[in-house]
């Protein structure tokens, strides 16, 4: 898969990272041999890039913020809780939800490749797949967070979770203050993709 649903390897790929270039080359071969329908590839990419995207995850977070029973279920069995909302599928078979608190902030990375929970976050951003993020997030997470504009108190522990082919993680960011009267839909609008990876925070509500 790749970031451009209308490109199938016909233009030079010198600007791509090695893994993406290999995927595009393989896809081109499979299409040319008639083993893969390019329309089907485009449909899959469109689903995860535009129809799914991070808004599914945002709905999960908003419900966790407003429904204590659902939040408890999410902690016990994230896969079942998320599936109950209709968000399931490839790359999301085994989910774990980790909750940010005042004492602990969670950050997700995949050090071996770019395992990512597609059903709740869509396609992974380019930087998530970059070797620099994958190595530095583990070695110096506080510095990486600072580069994303997230500065945490010194006493806040940063816990890094390494995704695998077996387990994918969803960060439940802290609910912003001043949102007590907001409903799930308005709350979901405050939840960003980066906040569900842990390299960002939920947005503060706009002043009335």
Structural class: mainly alpha
Spell out the CATH superfamily of the largest domain. Answer: Nitrile hydratase alpha /Thiocyanate hydrolase gamma
Terminal Cα span:
42 Å
How many beta-strand segments? 4
| Domains, number | 2
CATH third-tier fold name of the largest domain: Nitrile Hydratase, Chain A
Shape: globular
Helix content: 40-55%
Count up the helices.
11
The proportion of residues in beta strands is 5-15%
CATH class of the largest domain: Alpha Beta
What are the segments in which pLDDT stays under 50 over at least 5 consecutive residues?
1-16
SSE order, as H and E?
HHHHHEEHHHHEEHH
Biggest sheet: strand arrangement: 1-4
Q: Would you tell me the overall average pLDDT? A: 83
The CATH architecture category of the largest domain equals Alpha-Beta Complex
